[in-house]
Amino acid sequence: MENDLIFEVRYFHIPCGTIENAKFISETVIKSRLAACSHISEIKSSYLWDNQLQSEIEFLLILKTTPEFEGALSIMVRNLHQYEVPCILIIKANVNESYYRWMLTQLS
């Protein structure tokens, strides 16, 4: 049984303003083989912009990749994102061996 979560990956957490932008980024980075997979969920976000409290629906794009592709994926997301100031939150995580090996088959 696989219990050791020792395979390091990167988990990207990226809020997007429209489902179209989230899908576009997702499809582009997966076809470019910089991300192994993605998830998109509707979220409610609150923040200050120009000293005004904003509260709106956004779409959370989650991407998974390996440390090797972190930099290139981050640059591509920044270039494709619709926001003037996008949030590209990168989290270091560990996964099980079989999932990690599958990820490697999906990446360049």
Strand % is 35-45%
Name of the CATH class: Alpha Beta
Number of distinct beta strands = 4
Number of domains as seen in the coordinates: 1
Average pLDDT score = 95
Number of helices: 3
Query: Portion of residues in helices?
Result: 25-40%
Q: How are the strands of the largest sheet arranged?
A: 2-3-1-4
Structural class: alpha+beta
Residue stretches low in confidence (pLDDT < 50, at least 5 long) are: none
Radius of gyration: 15 Å
Approximate shape: elongated
In N-to-C order, the SSE pattern is: EHEEHEH
The largest β sheet comes out as:
4 strands, antiparallel
> Roughly how many Å apart are the termini?
29 Å
CATH fold field value: Alpha-Beta Plaits
Q: Write the CATH architecture name.
A: 2-Layer Sandwich
